[in-house]
Amino acid sequence: MAVPLSYAEAYLGDRTLKLGMSGYDVLQLQRNLGYLGYNVGKLDGKYGWQTFNAVKNFQWRNGLKVDGVVGKNTANAIIARVSGDKAQRPRAAAAVSRGNLPLSRQDLYDLARIVHGEARGEPFEGQVAVAAVVLNRLQSGQFGNTVQDVIFQPWAFTAVHDRQFYLPPNESAFRAVNAAVKGWDPSGGALYYWNPQTATSQWVWSRPIINRIGNHVFAY
After folding, report:
1. Single pTM value for the model
2. CB-CB contact of 210 with 190 (8 Å)
3. What is the 3-class SS of the chain, one letter each residue?
């Protein structure tokens, strides 16, 4: 009978990696994704949220199932990309890092207001994802040059239209904004989200859905 590899001895591809796991293969995963330009956070061999999000971003950009689980297909794809031409690194992956955004206190407050107005009652992950979408839009350059440009774009956010944006944000909204600013993007790099039970726009359904959290779907 074969003796199973210990966590310390496992190499990337030897076992299926999931959130919460640790080991040398997780460290390999983090190093490889970091080499490819994805933000995995600290290289510590622990499969945390930033590594999870980096995996989902890699999966999405490479046509794989977007679930944050590193099975054989994802592991082989990562290894193949690392072994290939450096010029093929995904340029868009660096967008996960928010360090280059000069956000003011007003920006952070307005982000918390949009999270509270749009996603209070949603799972915390879903609140972070809403904040991440606003930041993704800002970094894309397609929706305006400031947080306020993005938020107040006509009909972009229901909470602005129905005035829920102006409610005082709660502590969870501020924590969600902080997590998104630090780089956590549960949306998978999305630029759009909506509630499929209430959405009336036909156009928005033409966007490729990449994730679902709580009552919202997220799309690019």
Report:
1. 0.58
2. yes
3. CCCCCCCCCCCCCCCCECCCCECHHHHHHHHHHHHCCCCCCCCCCECCHHHHHHHHHHHHHCCCCCCCCECHHHHHHHHHHHHCCHHHCCHHHHHHCCCCCCCCHHHHHHHHHHHHHHHCCCCHHHHHHHHHHHHHHHHHCCCCCCHHHHHCCCCCCHHHHCCHHHCCCCHHHHHHHHHHHCCCCCCCCCCEEECCCCCCCCHHHHCCEEEEECCEEEEC
Tokens of 170: 């709660």
Asked whether the beta carbons of 81 and 100 are under 8 A apart, the reply is: no
Residue 143, CA distances (Å) to 10, 137, 140, 154, 158 in order: 44, 6, 7, 11, 16
Amino acid (1-letter code) at residue 74: T
The span from the CA of 58 to the CA of 34, in Å, is 11
The pLDDT tens digits along the chain (220 residues) read: 333 334 445 788 889 999 999 998 898 899 888 878 888 888 899 999 989 988 998 888 888 899 999 999 999 999 888 776 333 333 333 334 566 678 999 999 999 999 999 999 999 999 999 999 999 999 988 999 999 999 999 989 999 999 999 999 999 999 999 999 988 999 989 999 998 888 777 777 888 888 899 999 998 8
Q: Which residue is listed with tokens 């099975």?
A: 71
Q: Which of 108, 104, 106, 101 is nearest to 141 (CA)?
A: 101
- Structure-block tokens of residue 89: 């690194």
